[in-house]
Specification:
By secondary structure, the protein is mainly beta. The strands form four sheets. Strands 10, 11, 13, 14, 15, 16, 17, 20, 21, 22 and 23 form an eleven-stranded mixed sheet that branches. It has a five-stranded antiparallel sheet with strand order 4-3-6-1-9, with no helix packed on it. The protein has a five-stranded mixed sheet with strand order 8-7-2-5-12, with no helix packed on it. The radius of gyration is 23 Å and the shape is globular. It folds into two domains: 190 residues, Jelly Rolls; 150 residues, Jelly Rolls (Sandwich), CATH 2.60.120. It contains one helix and 23 strands. The longest helix is centred in the last third of the chain and has 17 residues.
Length: 403
């Protein structure tokens, strides 16, 4: 149930005329709010935030958090976050990317989104917070309302996903349809729209239940840490030593019309978000295929066995779903264009295919943001048998990735 709270922010979303024509598809919206800070050292900004269905929040171009955690028809969770460390003197900006999954009843096909994510028939963003001075007085209210700028974004097309139907499809992302620098404070959002009819978080007149019963997050945020791939398994199109550290490859420039393929090993089965930073590359394409193991292409020729030792490449290939990114080409060495999928991926290996268009395409960085439950190891198992130690380590990795 919606708990007792002083609700001042409103839900905002694109008006019906600017939203996609069908609620059977996922759609994304970019939101911005700018404000001025005279003295960051004497300021404080605490915020409560949620969205339907998923969001990523940035302050002055820096990623802060993603959410919310999964709820149901009676609980829509919100996060509480301290944005004070991200403030700077002068103009500041809160930028939020929101994806809404279509109704579980009407949404169809691969574009329907994860089945485990509850959502209402229409999505939106809700953020409540105020910039306060050192005395605790509100200098400016930043609640979502009709002053926030928003832009429906058609850069992402969801690919077909037929293996489980529980995680939603992968992404085809066209960088030229994402406004360059939209997360930054200095971005010009004067051409963006606003929400003409913000929605109250509760029905103050009739008292009926609203689509989102706002409830504080009951579990800690998932841990996140940036990681580099420790091992290159295989390379095509360039001379590189197999089983060598993958980080030494970057920055990697692929010349016009050429293709390079890399197979990278994370060292263990993990969950997270692969991160790309590129510059140049207009007309190019980067494919990211996620796999648990090397598999036989024809298992019937091997007694029905698809996979054995996970990193045994002999006679095997990587099999899995893939995201595809098409760079806009505006990135530079000092300010690269970046890509990170909205949905969390599970993998040990990633096959990366980089195709340059009419100009060179440089991959400045390729790593991943590892995530999972912040499990605290209160005890341990130690044994003279190395297998027991390995099983304990594997068990911890499984819990951290699957809880």
């Amino acid at each position: 149930m919606e708990h007792q709270h002083a609700w001042t922010a409103r839900w905002i979303r694109p008006d019906a005329g600017s939203a996609p024509a069908t609620e059977r598809m996922q759609h994304r919206t970019l939101y911005r709010k700018t404000f001025d800070v005279a003295d960051p050292a004497a300021s404080e900004l605490l915020a409560e935030v949620t969205a339907d269905s998923k969001y990523r929040l940035y302050v002055n171009g820096t990623f802060v958090l993603r959410g919310p955690c999964k709820g149901d028809n009676w609980r829509h969770y919100y996060d509480t976050v301290d944005l004070t460390p991200y403030l700077r003197e002068g103009r500041n900006a809160i930028a939020v990317e929101v994806v809404h999954y279509p109704s579980l009843l009407t949404g169809g096909g691969s574009d329907g989104g994860p089945l485990s994510e509850w959502r209402a028939d229409a999505g939106g963003l809700w953020l409540q917070g105020a910039l306060k001075d050192k005395h605790g007085s509100a200098a400016e209210t930043l609640d979502t309302d009709g002053t926030w700028k928003l832009l429906p974004c058609d850069a992402v097309q969801i690919g077909q996903e037929t293996k489980t139907l529980f995680v939603g499809g992968t992404e085809d992302v066209r960088g030229d349809r994402i406004p360059a620098g939209w997360r930054e404070a200095g971005f010009d959002d004067s051409a963006w729209g606003v929400c003409a009819r913000p929605l109250e978080p509760l029905d103050r007149f009739w008292g009926q239940l609203m689509p989102w019963q706002l409830t504080p997050r009951p579990i800690p945020p998932l841990r996140e840490s940036e990681q580099e791939f420790p091992r290159l398994m295989r390379a095509e199109g360039i001379a590189a030593a197999e089983k060598s550290p993958a980080g030494a490859l970057f920055p990697l420039t692929v010349l016009p019309g050429e293709t390079v393929a890399l197979e990278l090993d994370a060292g263990r089965l993990t969950t997270g978000y692969v991160q790309l930073a590129v510059h140049g590359g207009q007309g190019g394409q980067i494919d990211l295929l996620y796999a648990e193991a090397y598999e036989y292409a024809q298992p019937e020729l091997h007694g029905g066995v698809r996979k054995a030792v996970r990193d045994d490449m002999a006679g095997k290939t990587l099999v899995g779903n893939d995201d595809r990114f098409f760079p806009a080409g505006w990135g530079s060495a000092g300010g690269p264009e970046t890509y990170e999928p909205m949905g969390r991926r599970a993998f040990r290996f990633v096959r990366v295919v980089i195709r340059a268009g009419n100009g060179p395409l440089t991959v400045a960085r390729l790593g991943w943001r590892a995530t999972g439950f912040p499990l605290e190891e209160l005890g341990a198992v130690r044994s003279s048998d190395p297998l027991t130690d390995d099983m304990w380590r594997i068990s911890l990795n499984t819990l951290r990735g699957c809880m």
